[in-house]
Amino acid sequence: MDNEAAPNLPLPDAFIHFLNENGLDPSIYTMSDLTPRYVRLKPGCEAYLEEIEAEIECKLGKVAWLPNFYSLPPHIQIANSKAYQEGKIYGIDAASGAAVLALNISLGDHVLDLCAAPGAKLCMILDLLGSSGSVTGVDVARHRLAACRTMLQKYSLGDHCRLFVADGTTFSLFPIRVHSDSKSCECGLEGKLDVYKEWTSRRPWKERKREAKARASVASQLASRIHDPELIFYGRNSGVVGLSKSELYQTLHCSEVLHCGYDKVLVDAECTHDGSIKHIQKFEQWGWKTLQHRVLNAERTDDLTVLQLQLLTNGFRLLKVGGSLVYSTCSLTVAQNEDVVEQFLSKNASAELLEIDAAEIWPCKSGRVPNTLRFDPMTSQTSDIGLCTKDTPGNSNAWSITTK
Ligand SMILES: C[S@@+](CC[C@H](N)C(=O)[O-])C[C@H]1O[C@@H](n2cnc3c(N)ncnc32)[C@H](O)[C@@H]1O
């Protein structure tokens, strides 16, 4: 495909070539005016629907295939609305919702979100779990994870959650249930403060400042990324309260992982974001040269696919037997989606790619690998994302992949 085939597009030749290589129609990047935006209604806020519609002056269209999701015209802004500021609605694309739904969360599940920030999917997982189970959110970017913490507080969702600044390719901590026979998550806070105050963000301000200074050197930052997860948030019922530092940072042997790992893992991997139409449109202002560097640069993409495979591999390692994993990206490229999954499967005989039952009614396409799925503006009326789920031996779960 060349520029002549898409005369109205302001996209540079190199990007058109990139789309062509991935079998993508450039007109998906001109559809943003037609693609709706989406909100998710916080469970329990159904009674406010009419009030919200009156405030934002538009009707919310129920998304039939995605519980609690509503579409609205793309020009409607929600950020300044009272409904958004009071935590009654979330701004999240429908394709992101599909990625979470693909996890098939059950009450009581212990879920790991390995690339969690800024946290739109993490919040949805917590809403689905209600007051059961636990969620462990991990992200390498401290400032992004801090935004995630703010979101948990805004939506009052943190009770069963803990957040770690850590490298998802090496993160090794398991759900707190491994301690549950000896420690109750419900135990009182009194008398336990001395156990956890030494290593959480509740430490004195001076102490935290000193540590922040120490982290300022690139070398120590890298070292802490690789070796030392840092807990920056935990809820009262996250299982953390009452543990000593060594108990919290205990890692398990391979044989224990099989039964003590997470029930569900989401690997919403770092990617080139080329599937995000709004992201690509920003390059009109940032300059197409930046696009060349950030999206099309083969070396960067190679590095990213290595990272994606490592994240996927580590997420799978932390999954218990019979658990399932979803791998997703907001890139539309084959290299960052199907290729990563195929490479992973070729090295992990115990993993299997299964069909996502719920997807029967989803407006998406099959990816190049059977049981993977792709969302795009034309097929799905959504913006961007990609995902897949995987399984361990001895159970009926599986992998599925989707991109939006
Ligand atoms: C696509 S975003 C995740 C979006 C998030 N799941 C949500 O729904 O809001 C990818 C995230 O991966 C994080 N990331 C990049 N490299 C990582 C690594 N090695 N370990 C953990 N997180 C990483 C980035 O900081 C970024 O926040």
Automatic annotation (TrEMBL):
The keyword NADP does not apply. Keywords: Methyltransferase, RNA-binding, S-adenosyl-L-methionine, Transferase. Pfam families: Methyltr_RsmB-F (PF01189). Residues 24-393 form the SAM-dependent MTase RsmB/NOP-type domain. One of its GO terms (molecular function) is RNA methyltransferase activity. It comes from the Eukaryota. InterPro entries: MeTrfase_RsmB-F_NOP2_cat (IPR049560), MeTrfase_RsmB-F_NOP2_dom (IPR001678), RCMT (IPR023267), RCMT_subfamily_9 (IPR023269), SAM-dependent_MTases_sf (IPR029063). SUPFAM superfamilies: S-adenosyl-L-methionine-dependent methyltransferases (SSF53335). Gene3D superfamilies: Vaccinia Virus protein VP39. S-adenosyl-L-methionine binds at residues 139, 167, 268. GO terms for biological process: RNA methylation. The active site is at 330 (nucleophile). This is SAM-dependent MTase RsmB/NOP-type domain-containing protein. Belongs to the class I-like SAM-binding methyltransferase superfamily. RsmB/NOP family. It comes from Camellia sinensis.
